[in-house]
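Try this one yourself first.
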C-alpha cells in the first residue's frame, strides 16, 4: 500500500504524528506538504494528493487541515475521488465499508493524536463491503461522468 499524505499549516502537527504512525506500521507514504506552520493555501495541497490518488500511483490518500472540510471539498472535485471527512471510528468504518473512500480527511482541531490513530486504524482495516453499495458507487460515477467533463 502506498499513501499520499498532505496538510495545510493548521494540520501540519497532526500530519507529522500520523507520519510517525505510518512509519511504525511500515506503510509507505509520500508527503505532499506542507512543510511547516507557515500559512499556505490548502486547495493546492488537497489537489496534489487527489491527483496522486486519481492517477493510481497511490492507493489511498490522507488530508488534514483544521476542520478537514476544505480539504475534503477540494479532493471531491476530482473524478473518481471519494474523500470522506471522518471524526471517529464509526465514520471511518462506514467511509470504507459502504463508500469505498480512497481519501481520508481529518480535522486537526477536533482530534488528538490518539483519536487520529484510531480513525486511521479503522479506515485501513475496513474493506469495501460491495453488494448493494457497488450499484451506488456506479450511480456516483454516472453523476461524475455527467457533471465532470
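Now uncover the answer:
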Amino acid at each position: 500500500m502506498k499513501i499520499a499524505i498532505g496538510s495545510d499549516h493548521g494540520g501540519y502537527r497532526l500530519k507529522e504524528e500520523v507520519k510517525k504512525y505510518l512509519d511504525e506500521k511500515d506503510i509507505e507514504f509520500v508527503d505532499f506538504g506542507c512543510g511547516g506552520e507557515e500559512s499556505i493555501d490548502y486547495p493546492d495541497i488537497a489537489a496534489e494528493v487527489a491527483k496522486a490518488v486519481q492517477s493510481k500511483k497511490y492507493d489511498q490518500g490522507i488530508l488534514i487541515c483544521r476542520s478537514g472540510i476544505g480539504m475534503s471539498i477540494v479532493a471531491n472535485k476530482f473524478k473518481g475521488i471519494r474523500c470522506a471527512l471522518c471524526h471517529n471510528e464509526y465514520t471511518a468504518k462506514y467511509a470504507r465499508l459502504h463508500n469505498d473512500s480512497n481519501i481520508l480527511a481529518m480535522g486537526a482541531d477536533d482530534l488528538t493524536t490518539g483519536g487520529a490513530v484510531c480513525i486511521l486504524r479503522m479506515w485501513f482495516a475496513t474493506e469495501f463491503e460491495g453488494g448493494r453499495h457497488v450499484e451506488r458507487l456506479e450511480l456516483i460515477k454516472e453523476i461524475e461522468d455527467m457533471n465532470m467533463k
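Discussion: The radius of gyration is 14 Å. Residues 132-147 form the longest helix (16 residues).
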